[in-house]
Amino acid sequence: MESATLVAMNDAVSPKSSVTVQVSVIAISAALFAVAKGVTAYIRTPWGVGQLFIASFIPVFFAITADTLPAAIGAGAGSFLGDILFLVPLGATTPFFAITVGAPANFVAILLLSTFVKRYRSWPAFVAATVCFLTLGNLIAGALLVWLFPFPAQYMLGFTVYWDMTSIPAILIGVPILVRATLPTIGRSKVLKYTPQWSGIGRRQVTISLIFSMVFVALGGAIFLLAPSLVSFWPGLASYFAIAAVLVVVFGPIANVVSGTGPKASKTAP
User: Which of 7, 75, 125, 204 has its CA 20 to 30 Å from the CA of residue 90?
Assistant: First the structure.
C-alpha cells in the first residue's frame, strides 16, 4: 500500500526541469523547426510573403511532449532562425518581420496549445487546440503583417487561411507519426516528458474531432465568400483547399490510432 501511494504521488507531482533541460528543449526544438522551415522555403507562396507552413508540426510535437514554456520559446526562436537563414535570402521576408511577426505568433500559438493539451489530454482536445490556436497564431501573424506592411486589410484573411491550410493537415498527420516513432523514449527522457493519452476510436471523440475538422473547413471556405478578389492571386486554390479539407476531415477523427498511445500508455504528470 505504501509503495502504491508513493507511485501515485510521483505521478501527481513532477519535479521542475533543470535549467539545462529547459535550454535543451529550446535549442533542439528551435533547430529542428528552423531546418524544417528551410525544406519548404523555396516553394512560392500566393502573395510572395511567408512560406508553406508544413514545418509547424515540429513545434507542436514539442508542445505536447516537452515542457510548455521552453517549447513555446523554441517555436518563436525556430521561426526567427528559419526566416533569417532561409526566407530572408530568398526575399520572402525581412529580419524585421521575422522578429515582429513570425516569432511572436508562433510563441503565442504554441504556448496556448501546449497549456491546453496538457490539461485536457485527449485526442479531440488536441484536434480542437490545433484548429483553434494555430488559427489564432496565424491570425496574429496576418494581422501584424497587414498592420506593419501596406497590405489591404482583406489580406489578413488570406494569410490566415493559407497558413491554416498548409499547417493544420501537416500537424494532424505528422504529430501522431512523430509520437509513434519516439514513444519508447517519451516519459523516460528529460526532454520528452509527457506521453499523450490518445485512446482508440470512439463515437464521442470522433464526433468532437469531426466538429473541429469542419470548423477548419469553414475557416478555409471563408476566403471564397469574404475575400473573393484574393482567389485570383492563388492559382489552384480550389483544388488545394479540397485536398486540405479531405485530409483534415479524414485524419482529424482517426489519426490518433497512428500514435500508438492510449489509456495504458505510461504517463508523466504535467
Answer: 75
174, part of any domain: yes
Domain hosting 116: range is 19-259
Count of domains forming the chain:
1
> Residue 155 contacts by C-beta under 8 Å, 6 or more apart in sequence?
47, 142, 145, 146, 230
pTM over 0.70: yes
In a domain, 117, yes or no: yes
State the Cα–Cα distance between residues 139 and 133, nearest whole angstrom: 9
* Three-state DSSP string of 86-125: HHHHHCCCCHHHHHHHHHHHHHHHHHHHHHHHHHCCCHHH
Can you tell me the distance from the alpha carbon of 54 to that of 182, in angstroms, rounded to the nearest whole number? 20
Q: Does residue 29 contact residue 75 with C-beta atoms inside 8 Å? A: yes
pLDDT tens digits for range 57-92: 999 999 999 999 999 999 999 999 999 999 999 988
Residue 14 domain-assigned (yes or no): no
Digit-coded pLDDT (tens) for 166-185? 999 999 999 999 998 998 88
* b/e map 7-30, b = 16+ CB within 10 Å: eeeeeeeeeebeeebbebbbebbb
The Cα–Cα gap between 205 and 198 comes to 10
